[in-house]
Amino acid sequence: MRTCTFLVVVVAMIYAIATPAMGCGESYGTTSIEDGWEHIPNINDQHIQELGNWAVLEFLKHVNCLLKFIKVVSGEEKVVSGMNYELVIDASDASGKLGRYKAEVYEQEWTKTRKLISFSKTN
């Protein structure tokens, strides 16, 4: 019994020494936004940039305008029965004027499903 108690105390002391202390107000875990949205860690990821380009092309199927995808500049993602993405996209119009747009895309990779939920110009 004494050996078992001694072992528990030793393990607890090693854990306390090896685990870094967290101060009040320090962040812990992933940075998340309300309702489960999290910042996309690598906005330059090829898949994220391809999703942004796809969103612009999908939007153009439903409107009478011309936009050219430039790049995804920021975004958030949320796990659902697949993944929701909220992407901030730079694109230029027919005259070459740069604009910023927000697209929400739903994707379920294993079923090859993509849906453009919304697309709008931002300030």
Question: What's the gist of this structure?
Answer:
The chain has 123 residues and is α+β, with helices and mostly antiparallel strands.
Features:
five-stranded antiparallel beta sheet, about 120 residues, about 40% strand, about 25% helix, 2 helices, alpha+beta
Would you mind describing this structure in some detail?
A hairpin with a 4-residue loop joins strand 3 and strand 4 (98-108). This protein is elongated. It has 2 helices and 5 strands. It is 26% helix and 39% strand. It is of the alpha+beta class and 123 residues long. Mean pLDDT is 80; it is low at 7-32. The relative contact order is 0.14. It has a 5-stranded antiparallel β-sheet.
Reconstruct the topology from this structure.
Layout (H helix, E strand, L loop, with lengths): L1 H17 L19 E2 L6 H15 L6 E14 L1 E12 L4 E11 L4 E9 L2
Antiparallel strand pairs: 1-2, 2-3, 3-4, 4-5
Largest sheet: 5 strands, antiparallel
Poorly predicted runs: 7-32
Helix share bin: 25-40%
- Please indicate the percent range of residues in DSSP E strands (runs of 2 or more): 35-45%
Radius of gyration: 23 Å
Tell me the distance between the termini. 69 Å
Shape: elongated
Q: Give a count of the beta strands, DSSP E runs of length 2 or more.
A: 5
Order of helices and strands: HEHEEEE
Number of helices: 2
| Helix and strand composition category | alpha+beta
Could you tell me the mean pLDDT?
80
Question: What strand line-up does the widest sheet have?
Answer: 1-2-3-4-5
